[in-house]
Amino acid sequence: MDRIYLDHAATSPMHPAVIEQMVPHMQNVFGNPSSIHGFGRESRRLLDEARSVIAASLHARPKEIIFTSGGTEADNMAILGAASAYRHKGNHIITTQVEHHAVLNTCKNLEKQGFEVTYLPVDTDGSISVEALKKALKPETILVTIMYGNNETGSVQPVQEIGMALKNHPALFHTDAVQAYGLLDLDVKECGIDMLSASGHKINGPKGTGFLYLREGISLKQQSYGGEQELKRRAGTENVPGIYGLKAAAELALKTKEEKAAQYREFKMKLMEVLKEEEVSFEVNGTLEGSLPHVLNLYFPGTNVEAMLVNMDLAGIAVSSGSACTAGSIEPSHVLTAMYGDHERTKASIRFSFGYGNTLDQIEKTARVTAGIVKRLTA
């Protein structure tokens, strides 16, 4: 059975070109970047090269990039570090109800430490109101953390408008851009972004790699202690082969960004076209126009997400929901609940996410298999 992988928003396969670039460095470049001898200097050169490439992709400066183990660490570093460093100025943080758990759970932890957190609601498109954000701002607001593009529905937030709204307020602006990096144009200066998180394994790079963009002049309370790596901002010997793989993946992603975006939008239209041809009832969660190109979240009335996922997997098709599976039960998606309230669609929606290796034929096959499963479950 030929398997089809349509869960790229969860993780993506490493691109062969990335592996090819990483292997020589895994075999031959093993020096500690902090060492002053030739072996160390060779590793340091690779780190510097990667830092420059990543910085340029955001219109940032190399010294504003901190390499991390992924998006979750970058989110934690930004939120916890800023909260601790600026607590003397206030204790109020603003985020949204639809953030990734790396942000939501970090904010919940800060609430236990005495911080006040405002969770902005979203509309049925998955977007916040910039006016609501402005009204939520207080003199003691020190941080606004709002994701760039949602991992479940693909909804893209009005990031540039948010940056403008914060222009005359001292609050820092952090955005989790894990799903957006490599697919959308990201300009931290133009958007007024102070901190930005991204991850390697979402762009066909190695797992365990990522970075935090930290605007020059911003202080973060250190979260780990040890050596003086990453300009004294993150202790621990750097993962040089992984970071070089992240750099290779970023270069490839940015080079093919427009081509991929167009292809993934074609996949979306093909999938829905075949479902309509098969006379299957479905609705798009969010909006097609204001979403990430690679994410399509569909509601299939009368189905059950657990039965859908099991049947799709048995058919060799890997998709997902926005739900967490705990003790055999599927909890409603917090993102869809924020968008639609207590509605059946929170328990009957599937996320299709596209990426490297997918073809139009695979998309058509997926749509027909999906249609067959929906018809069986709703008969």
UniProtKB/TrEMBL annotation:
One Pfam family here: Aminotran_5
Family annotation (SUPFAM superfamilies): PLP-dependent transferases (SSF53383)
Domain Aminotransferase class V: 4-365
Catalyzed reaction equations: (sulfur carrier)-H + L-cysteine = (sulfur carrier)-SH + L-alanine
Top-level taxon of the source organism: Bacteria
Needed cofactors: pyridoxal 5'-phosphate
EC id: 2.8.1.7
Gene3D superfamilies: 1.10.260.50, Aspartate Aminotransferase, domain 1 (3.90.1150.10), Type I PLP-dependent aspartate aminotransferase-like (Major domain) (3.40.640.10)
UniProt keyword Iron, yes or no: yes
Entries under InterPro entries matching the protein: Aminotrans_V_dom, Aminotrans_V_PyrdxlP_BS, Cysteine_dSase, PyrdxlP-dep_Trfase, PyrdxlP-dep_Trfase_major, PyrdxlP-dep_Trfase_small
Keywords: Iron, Iron-sulfur, Metal-binding, Pyridoxal phosphate, Transferase
NCBIfam families in the cross-refs: PRK02948.1 (NF002806)
This protein's name: cysteine desulfurase
Species of provenance: Metabacillus indicus (Bacillus indicus)
Organism placement in taxonomy: Bacteria, Bacillati, Bacillota, Bacilli, Bacillales
